[in-house]
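User: structure tokens for this one?
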Amino acid sequence: MSRNDASHDGETTGESAADKQANDAPEVGDPPGDPASSDGLVSRRNFLEGIGIASLLGIGSSTASDDSLFQMGGLKPVDDTIGNYPYREWEDLYRDEWDWDSVSRSTHSVNCTGSCSWNVYVKNGQVWREEQSGDYPRFDESLPDPNPRGCQKGACYTDYVNADERIKHPLKRVGERGEGKWKRISWDEALTEIAEHVVDEVQAGRYDAISGFTPIPAMSPVSFASGSRLVNLLGGVSHSFYDWYSDLPPGQPITWGTQTDNAESADWYNSDYIIAWGSNINVTRIPDAKYFLESGYNGTKRVGIFTDYSQTAIHTDEWLSPDSGSDTALALGMAQTIVDEELYDEAHLKEQTDMPLLVRQDTGKFLRASEVPSVNSSADRPEWMMLMLDSDGRLREAPGSLGERDGQKDYSKSIVLDFDPQLDAETTVRTEDGNVQVRTVWAELKDELATWDPETVHDVTEVGKETYQRIAREFAEADKAKIIHGKGVNDWYHNDLGNRALQLLVTLTGNLGEQGTGLDHYVGQEKIWTFHGWKTLSFPTGKVRGVPTTLWTYYHAGILDNTDPDTAAKIRESIDKGWMPVYPEERDDDSRPDPTTMFVWRGNYFNQAKGNVAVEEQLWPKLDLVVDINFRMDSTALYSDIVLPTASHYEKHDLSMTDMHTYVHPFTPAVEPLGESKTDWQIFRELAAKIQEVATDRGVEPIQDRKFDREIDLQSIYDDFVRDWETGEEGALAEDRAACEYILEHSEETNPADSDEQITFADTVEQPQRLLEAGGHWTSDIEDGEAYAPWKDFVQDKNPWPTATGRQQYYIDHDWFLELGEQLPTHKEGPENTGGDYPMEYNTPHGRWSIHSTWRDNEKLLRLQRGEPVLYLHPEDAAERGIEDGDTVEVFNDLAEVTLQAKIYPSSQRGTARMYFAWERFQFEDDTNFNSLVPMYMKPTQLVQYPEDSGEHLHFFPNYWGPTGVNSDVRVDVRKAGGDDQ
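Assistant:
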């Protein structure tokens, strides 16, 4: 398909990384050997086709005719092999890769945390190829060069840009959802049908039945903001994603009171000791893996903790293989060793943690200043002033406690101690209710850890006692130690306990708040550097109906009705108390409408849904209209009602960031969008215009929002969409590039207050730009000459941690935590019979050959695998079932059975069935997918608000705190397809 000319003034990055070989390329026009020329020469396509024919005819064999090759049209005998001859241009096939008309800078909008800058080469109006840009500026010469960044997926994104499977026109479903029957409609028809439906819903007061799902703003914030902005103006619902994907580590908000904060990957090189724990860096962090590998040159010891002998384990100095799901027990055993052998950092524990705080033995609650008359607290909220014992045995208030702070984050206070608290203490305190026995958190923790002695840990984990104890000692004694924490630990039901146990290791050893230390959780991109600009662009009203997608799905897919009574009661209590929201909201008559409308863009909700069977059978029929905005027909698009064609990553303006590095760089359009496709910003802008047109024609009056003090005015919704709400300028945000500039201008990371420095979009086009500072939602600043490392605000600057205690908080005295015995980190086995009573554990880790479902259908990458979904089995498990490598098998449980190919995988543990995730439904012969076997369930401790009345520590906020999805703790069995036992 031809494209329009794709020159973009001011947005090319120069001729090439090699300056276009001294500018000796041919002039723009038909290149040598171009198929369009009429001189009878052989085109690249015809030549390659001829080679294929020649192979089939047996050219070069004794049976082939001497002149059979010349049956291809346009080929002539060669008499002089050195001279010029008519089809010599085939030699230029590789040279032509260095011949282009223009080059633009872009990247890829995928949930990989890579954020890699690429140069995109265009020839004859077509994207010809991509190449890593390799011009990230260095900020610390002692660290490895950050260039280049990229992976094999990004190196073949051109296949998508030019692919036949690109969606080029608006499509409307004419068959059943998932049947694949469509008709092509015009943009006006598509937008009118959607707008009519949306206006109907808003007029009926069902605006909160409209929702938008899109993940990861950092990977393309303008595209994220496009639909979010319209949904926000409609009064609709914005879905969370970080918890939904089971990427959110709930232990971090529980213990540290923050959304995930990590060091950038360059900081790995500063470590003396790294444990890669469930993070398969060489597979899932390919652009950053060099820092892990090269740290060995700096003397870093690298330990891998994986159930299988993974692609990262082979590059570590030692590999530990705990039984599947036993990581928490192993971490607690290591902590017990550190405590028992007194290898902990006592000063850090006293100042930075809740270990010296006193706990009542009668209630299990913290002892508060309000309960002890002799303390005579002057704090505004003495009920949230925690108490310690000083070295003389006197009760002292813990500075920085919530009771003296103004909200969760208050840097006007300090946690600096002017006394020496007792770490290990037990005493009796006279309270207003009488004498009460109290103990420090440290004393409680030591009792918990004592249950994780070497024999117990070995029995649970199968890791050698001497081995894990030695690793614990080495970690504690290293100058700078770090844990790289991954999805392999986070996909479990008790992931919050696992997080807290691993965090405990870096806390005990004081490995926080400086370069080369910490616990870095790299799973998904949880937040964005340019936060304020993105937030106000995405949610201009400042009022957001955010919803935890896991709970929303659980509720509307009917799973709550089939949940065990105790868990169901807690879920309903959380909803009733307003700790966790569900939309649509309950009406005055106590009824709750069903959701009716869902927009999905930049994501594949239907394919990624845990409880996939329930989502299809119970949730999806409730939705009257599902609109998918996509450049390809993925599973969500296939099960949608209207599909709108969006621009590819090389056809739009946007920005890209990640917490793996501290740079910002752009998307720029190398070519015009293919066919009738438009950018996300253009699509939602034009939908806003159509909604305004329909509402005006109908005379729809503004509607008062039931929850927020605002009106929903459909007659001005387009005007509101393109208006700059910060300055009031009308029409200022009509175009994508203007939205990019808005984000950069309104974010302190790129336009700091009290500074003349500013990063503009043009700056990012010229070269990736290192951010100028870190905003208030990060926990350290960006310093010249050093890699970003978190937690300095607390460890070095002594500001209160944003927890109830103002410290790293390992003891949670919420009623539900106490009831469930989880006030401190502990190990628990997962729920029983999740999926049924079957002998094998089923898990779905991230794989090498795709980023979620993107590239799962790429022909080049499928050729590097087996070209179809595969189940990995240990040889002994396979032999017991009569299964050989390459057999077609069925993996099954009470929810579904899935047919796919077996692969024998000696590196795995026995009793494990593994399918690398994100295969599309249409890639399975039985229209199932990897999530068909995965039930959906939630843990009550992830539904709480703490404090219960105010929630300054734990409160629902999208992608900060909410129930995570669970991808492991699933039981299955496997059999050969067509066997007698079916």
